[in-house]
Amino acid sequence: MMGAAADRWRELQSGRGVPPEILARAEASPWTHDPKDFAAPEEPVDTPSRRAALDLLGPGGGTVLDVGCGGGVASLALVGRAAHLIGLDRAQDMLDAFAVGATARGVPYDTVLGEWPDAAAAAGTADVVVCHHVLHNVVELEPFLTALSAAARRGVVIEMLAQHPMAWLDPLWVRFHNLHRPPPATTDDAVAVLAELGVTPTVTGWERVNPPRQHPAWVTRRLCLPADRVVEVAAAMDELPPRPRLAATLTWRTA
Ligand SMILES: C[S@@+](CC[C@H](N)C(=O)[O-])C[C@H]1O[C@@H](n2cnc3c(N)ncnc32)[C@H](O)[C@@H]1O
């Protein structure tokens, strides 16, 4: 049975959809991501998430499943300690970028195309499961988290922003569409869902050095506005406070 925290997460996340009448007028999909924006840096960034995963891998290393891998920032940072990587993503272009990164680093890997948790059986288990910046895409968090734990022989590392990554654009939804959003889901909301599953993660809050880029053209598309309004959107973005950089690492052992 779903708990109150899982219900709250669903409600907050559902409130961030785009109303169908706005979506219907969009020139291009507001949801597409460019894999280039998620490419893994050549030198891994030393973050609490990376340190938590290395700790779970231990000096002897092990296998890693990267759920919602994108270009592999989370798991490719573990090369040297990770003996084998599995990248799972629902987008083939992201898996292609992951494969390029793994090949360049000479680490053995597999890819699984599919939606977590439906594709969990295809991915199998790994010593360590990492899942970075995916939770805010998820509406039904309880089965998603349960499957992460079930896939991990040693432990799980989640990285997420302190609040929904698109919440900084909420003033622009009001300005351009008169659309008022509910408050964004936060790390505390995710931790509350884990508590309902009997999991108490170690939570480390930190500030990202390299926050994702914010091109006005991308924001224009995200707001379902035509490309010829990009100058207007860029001007409106200049009036926003800086994009929040607070992130959190949530980690727990499964054995
Ligand atoms: C914001 S990106 C993060 C990518 C990478 N983990 C990182 O930290 O750079 C989210 C990724 O998760 C994928 N994704 C979102 N929900 C998913 C799901 N339920 N199952 C599989 N992939 C998912 C998206 O396709 C996208 O590649």
Q: Can you tell me about this structure?
A:
Residues 1-45 are annotated as: Disordered. GO terms for molecular function: methyltransferase activity. Residues 64-150 form the Methyltransferase domain. This protein is of the alpha/beta class. It has a single domain (4-164, 182-212, 244-253), classed as Rossmann fold, CATH 3.40.50.150. The protein contains eleven helices and seven strands. The chain has a seven-stranded mixed β-sheet with strand order 3-2-1-4-5-7-6. Strand 1 (62-67), helix 4 (73-76) and strand 2 (82-89) form a beta-alpha-beta unit. The longest helix is centred in the middle third of the chain and has 14 residues, at 92-105. The radius of gyration is 18 Å and the shape is globular. The structure holds S-adenosylmethionine.
Summary of the model, kept short:
Residues 1-45 are annotated as: Disordered. The protein is built from 11 helices and 7 strands.
